[in-house]
Each structure stands twice: as structure tokens, then as C-alpha cells.
Amino acid sequence: MNLNVSEFKAERFRSLKRIAYPVSQLDVFVGANGVGKTNLYRALELIRSAAANTLAHDLARDGGLVSALWAGALKRNEPKQIVFSVGLTDPERRRAGAYRYEVAIGHPAPTSAAFASEAQIKTEAVTLVTGSRSLRMVERDGPLVMARADTGRPEPIDIDLLASETVLGRLEDPSRYPELDAIRRTLLQWRFYHGLRTDASSPLRRPCPAVATPTLASDGSDLAAVFATLRYIRQDTADLDAVIDQAFPGASLIVPRPGTSASFGMTFPEFPQRIFDAHELSDGTLRFLALAGALLAYRLPPFIALNEPEASLHPDLMEPLARLVVQAAARTQVWLVTHSTRLAEAVTATGAGKVRTVRKQDGATVIEGLKLWGEFAEDEED
Prior knowledge:
By secondary structure, the chain is α+β, with helices and mostly antiparallel strands. It has helices spanning 37-52, 55-61, 65-68, 167-170, 178-189, 223-234, 238-247, 283-295, 318-329, 341-350, 377-381; strands spanning 4-13, 16-22, 26-30, 81-89, 98-106, 120-130, 133-141, 144-148, 154-156, 191-194, 208-209, 252-254, 261-262, 265-268, 271-277, 303-307, 333-338, 354-361, 364-367.
């Protein structure tokens, strides 16, 4: 069971003082440099880290809790903690309610089993929300964990949790905690694509093992296998071929039948008999192909986030890229952060998705029209 994202919240994370956002099938965020668009992307990525049990480690790699915390003023008694929350629904059982996962991160107490500067999981909860009723399925306060098992009654869980570990990443018992397992599996399938490398040693430029690959890895290292899976296993590359022809008129993607490894190249109308292998392609061409592999793969993840995919692409590729994004959004949820107004306008022209403008206000990231409680002005009018 894969769950759809219905809502995302972040508090006191970098420039996100307080954001509650109602997630749709396709959300596009556009704005100037430095307004905090990437912080929206990164906050979602850290929610996935909670499912992978790497949240504290990933925050440490970003500079630690000090650099991650909101640097502005706080209200009296407001905790110096980062809070992430995500609402998830089963698209086939909407009346059954929505799950909400929430985690709060702060500085460790002097007596805790944590290093002085590392992030500590303060509280964590999984809640089932049905109408006006809320039922806690899992609740963690420091090292103490309560969970509602298959018996339906809350009970304490004997689990050896370090301060840096999440219950979501540690409590593995699908038969007793099916809701927790469904949330974890869904979040672990999310994919984040940012800064796909195109340098000479990029994994995009190298052959990869010939294994049926339905979904592109976040670093693009199995791109050739994704293309081979579409061509020789699914035997359907119509969408892929069409978008490549739109982006590079007269060019063709060449995917040889794999042996022990998979590879790809391209032909161009100027040299129709010459196959240019992946290591010969320009950075922009290769990046576009990687985005095509991510968005047209055989099986898309339940949620895809793209951060500035237009980097190194020619402006004329914004319309084909918008086409890729919209096609993917017909199969899964897509979250797109971009500097390119042309890309945002190309998405708008299709009539798909919501394009939102991000800006700064008193040092905090705000989304135009979004209220503090997570609704837009136009939604209230409707």
C-alpha cells in the first residue's frame, strides 16, 4: 500500500519559520535566489531520512542543528526545536482517514546518550485522523515509546533507542504495526533529484549492470538500465521517444540490447550513422536524458521531488521538460522547485498543477496566498 501526501508542515527549519502546505498532485515553486525554495525541498528530504533512520546523521552533514534551526526571534516559551510533519492518505480508502507523522528535533539534554552538538529526537508520533477524531498509533517522548499494536490498545514498547534514532526507522514489525510499516515503506520509496552530476566521472556517463530497473536511483547511476527496461522489458518507449524528439529534433536515443551491462547513446540528424555514447554527450543533453529517465521510468515512486532541474539546460528545453513533469504527475505526485519562470509558465500553460510563488518576509520563507493554517485564499473563496 502506497500512501499519497496530503499535507506538509515544517517549523523553525532554516528560513521555514512556520509552513503548512496542502500538497496536490503537482506543486511547482518558483522564486528568486535566497528565498528558501531549496529549504522546502530539503525539509521533505529529511522526512524521508526519518524513515531511513538517518535524520540526525543527515542534519550533521548539513552543518548540524545550529545551522538548521531558525535563526530569528522566537516567542516566549517557544521551544528551540525543528518540527517536521507529513499527512498521508490511502487513495483507495480516503474515508478511512489520514495518517500524520510528526517528529521534533532539538539539542540533547546533558544526561542523554548523545554528543553535545548532535540533533536529538525529542518527540515523535503517528496519528490517525478521521474527521474530528485523532487516534495516536505511536507516541515517543524521549526514550519512552507507546504504540497501539494489533490488539488495539496502547502499550509500552521495549526498544533500545539512541537519542539520534527514530522510532519510524527502528520499529520493524509489520504484523503488529501495519500503519507504521506502510508509512515507512512509502517514505523510503520517495525520490529526490537534485544536481545530477554530468562531469567526466559522472555515473550517468558509465554503463551499469544489466538488471531490470523500474525506478531511477537518486544519483542516476542506473539510467542505462532504466532505458533498457523500458525498451526490452516493457517494450514501450513511445513517450520517451516523443519527448526526446521534441527536445532534440531529429535525434534518437539508442539503447543496445544489454549483455552483462546496459548502455545508451544518441544519434543526431547531422551525423545519422554515428552513435554518440553517453560519455560524449553534452552536459545539458545528458541531464535532460536523466530527467526523462526519472520521470518516464517503468514504475514511478509514490512521490518525486525535483530541485532546480533546469540547471545547465538550454532555455528551449523548458517546454519539453514541462511536458515530462506533467506526464509524470499523471502517474504520481511531483514537487518541483525552480528558478525558471519559463519552466513554471510552461507548466501553467498545460493547465496542470499549482504554480506557487515563494518569497521572503521578515527573513522567513512565505508562499504567496498561503495562510498559516495551510489553506490558500482561492480555496477559501471556493
